[in-house]
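re: ur question from yesterday

yeah so i grabbed the chain u mentioned. its 1225 aa long if i counted rite. heres the sequnce exactly as i have it in my notes:
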Amino acid sequence: MNASIESLFGPPSEPIDIPAFIQAAIAIPNDEYNVEKPLSIAAECDVSDIRDNLFKTWNNPRLSAHLSINHDQLLMTLNSTTKAARNKRKAQPQDSLDLPPDVVALQNHLDAVKLSSWKISDQNVLTQVVRMVLNLPFIRPNSPQKVAPEPSAHLSEDTNAIITVTVYIRSTWSPGHLNRSSQHALLSSQTLGDLFRVIPCISNEIISNDAQDGDAQEPIQSEGCAVCVGDTVYGDGYCQEDYAQKLLNHLQTVSKDKPDLTKAPTTIFETPLSSLKLQVNQPYWLLHKGNCEHFLVVDQIRLQHTSDLSSGYALTLQITPSLLDLCRACAKVPAAFSIIGDIRLGETEVVSSLEQYSEVVSWINDVLDTSEESDEANPPAPTELTELDERITQLLATLDIACEDTSSQLERTIDDVSRSVPRLTYDLHFMKDSAITLQVSLEKVLQKSKDAVPDSTNAALEHLRHLDMIKERMEATRDALKEAESWSSLELEVTSLLGERNYAKAAERLSEASRSMVVFHNTPEYEPRRNLMVSLQNQLEASLSSALVAAINSQDVTLCRDYFSIFSHIQRESEFRNYYNASRRGSVVALWNDVSLADCESPPSVTSSEPFTEFLLRFYTAFLSLINSERVSIPAIFPDPAFTLSAFISSTLSSLQPTFSQRLSSLTSHYGEATLSHLITALRATEEFAASVEKVVEKLTIASSPSALDGSAHDAPPIPRSHARRRSIRMSISWRAGANLPSTSSKALLSEGLEWDQELFQPFLEFQTDYGSLERRLLDSALHKIISSDQIPDADRARLLRERAVDVIAVAEESLARCTAFTHGYGSVGLVFALDNFFQSFIDVWTADVRLETRNSSSQSKHLSSTDDFSDMDYSPQDWSDFQLSLHLLSSARAVYERLLVFEAKLRSNLVQTAIRFRLAHGDLPHSSIAPSRGESQLLEQSTLNSADLHALLTSVEAEAQFRESTLSSPRHTQIPAPTGSPESLLVEGRKAVFTFANSCQVALQGTILSPLRKYLATYASLPLWNAPGDPKAKRTTTANDLQMPTFSLSPSDTVQRVAEGLLNLPRLFEVYADDDALAFSLHTLPHVDTETLKGLTEQTSSEAPLQPAHMRRSSLSGAKSAPLDPDTVSSAWLSSLGHSLLEHLTTTILPSIPSLSPAGAAQLTSDLEYLSNIVRAINVEFQELDRWKELTALDDDEGRQRFSETQDIDHVLRIVGRLRRWER
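ran it thru and got these structure tokens back, copy pasting raw so excuse formatting
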């Protein structure tokens, strides 16, 4: 937002803290509000004296005429200044001597006003300050009313402030000017999103062009926005890269005058206005729909009054109607219709295609041609004259409208230019005056300096300057003559030297001539001489090429060194290196190109059975042997042996066909899911090769350093940089190894600038970056093999789960070593994600395969069925078998969960070691490399693996490890505060899957335990006693002779009694199995369990557990077992869950199935429910729906019908009971 827009508004206020403003208003005592104070303020602010003077002056004809004349003269002065192009006569001000005395007195009074900033000069008006019109209230009383403000007793903590916001948009005719579009009133509790939704904008009404003919055209939905408040940008949050993020990304490309903006952590829909410190009269920028801008200005912030609306905000107080575009045909009146694709418009494709043609005739023929509309089967018919005439007429109309549009656009451009030319004239005039003033000042300074020097000194200096100029010109003439003489015989000399095979002297002669080329710069002779120089150098290189190749192949070091000197003299060092590298690498490149591999060919090779990993070892051995031989010859030839060897290795690797990357891609396609292990083998071989090469380079550099220090190589030409391949290095934010520390290690100095190792490890980077998916594919393949081997009978499923868990953990432990070997810790995020999904997939398979009807072994069934303790429970041998199987599966789930915790501790320990390595490489030991090779480390640091997620993961695990160490190393009496919560789990989805599996086992176990009770209730709804005649509550008429018999309450039915007995027997069942750890596992996943009650019981048990000694050995926090729960707590949780499950089955399935209820049947049902309610309370089960059933069935018909008719919102229990009792009409 530029300063010109900000100047349109008044000076902004200080930032206003809206919550503090509301609290300050609430804190004002009630006695400070009185009637007298507003009256005194009104008297102090009274402007009646000013109004009387204005009316008195304006009612005087002479004074008002004087003011009008002065006003017109001032306007004419302004017009003559701003519109200099128009030749108008300036109005002359009237002489003050001719004015009447009262007019002179008025003028003197106006001139005496001290507001001099309002006074505008009559002669020179340069600039004008424009301010927006103040926002006046929309409703104004007819006469001032003195109303005492209400006391602040109605103010409370929930009081809101009303914020009035005015919305401005850019003017279409002047982008530097703003127009007011709307005004709104919002509560301080509302968000920026509420303000964005209420703003009317014509951009939101744009119709999509994708709609077909006849379809309802709907406006394009909002695509979000960005709001700038201060230095903070608030986005819409519709996606990860919302408008705010796109705005910041765009600002990164702006190199000049870009604002320093940061993205807010919350979106506009999460940011209430009360959380912002707003400024009155300060414009805030809003952007949406690509380039649609709005400017939000806060006009007023006040408390909500009792007379204000209590709801309905945000309110729209004012909307400025939008102006319509002019008609394209007449360009005078507003347009009434918008037609897309009309051929008569100037923006059609027909007119725009004219730019693609160089001739108008060809364009007209193509536009009028209709042959392309014909079918291929039918030849094109000749165009009729009528159709051709219609097309010509349409084309003429289109061209006429296009001409009118172009003419109108040209007129608007001319108007804009004419408005800006006067200002340009003034600027040029101002610059001219400034330049003349500067010139005069410089002349004065120069004249003063000349006057300060005596005449004799000036004469001597001029004579010396003249002699020096003569000397320079004579020397230049001598050099030019010498060079001309040498260039005239250059070609003949070099040709004769080449014929004599005196290549060294020919190179020296060319070197001397090359140094003299600078003399001919910017002269016509430069280009011919340069072409002659290049031609002679090419002849010399062609004469030496065959001899050079023969010397390189014969390893004649002396001859090669002489040839290198010759190539250096003619600036052809890079060509010599190309000759040398191509000749020396031939054997190694042939070994790579000619090999036939079993796993890298498409289709696979039948004749060869050598895999790629074995061949790679053989290739690296041959390559290393060649490098060792070059270590002897390269220092004797080149002045920079280390860089030369690096360039030789890089050129060899880049000349391999197929390339290293193609071979690795073929390897991946061949092995599929098992690719990762082969890639690790190849990477290890490459790292060993790189380590050997580093030793060779180090020896080479150390051996050649004395010659570089004693000055023996000073005479050698400068080392060319063309052979060194440069990379664009983009360092990551996190862990730039030794980025801001000076390098002092000799090994780091030696390897600085050598990029052969990056060329070597670059092919692996693509697969290292994709490590997470490769690891996931390998783990999925291993999981498939483990699951496909499950051939054990159903009776051993619990044991099979434990065994398969051991196999899965073993496979997962192997992935830790693979991550370190392949990515050196950079793939930790992908590793955690792959392991989490791996464990989740394994547990999900078992969850889906849980069988509720699994039979146990016959020995267990017979043993359990003959138990005397449970002989009175109606469980069949099948039920006992299912009970035991579910219990064993739940125990296996607990074992799997504990193994998962132990593995997570290993994973966390592995991540801690990785974090320590990263920290040492980053700060403590800046020259220690994370990977074995420096180039591999640089590639990994610059890759996407080195992300913020990796930094956050390693930082969190290292912080947790340091906290545990400080806790365990503290003395016994030291009280260290416990962490705010348990460490964040790494395998989140794996833990969830285990708990889901435990819930499935718990549901199966509950089904087995409640199966006899559900069998009792299966026939409960069809009992005949529900339609029994009679009404126990009806009053019987008796005579004096009748015997008065007492009435007793109904006894519960047999079914309910048997269900109640079964419920009372459940505690005996859990007394036997309460000590089993399986029942205590994952109590929070029990159906219908009260989480808060269970949490309280668990905390009570934990507080009663004995404290562990402070000197215990360090153990993993995630792998530590929790304190065992009290058996009574476990029994209570299970009994509560069983009771709720049974009662839910009763109230949702059994009772709604009763066909009807007579009064006697309702009384019996009430008795049963009352009895069952007392029984479940004995096992600490409260069920509100059961009480609701009991309450409604106890009503008589009159009370029930009355309640059924009077209740507005009838719940489902009342509706069912009304249907059974026939209360509904």
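noticed a couple things. The first helix runs from residue 3 to 6. also The longest strand covers residues 292-303.
anyway ttyl
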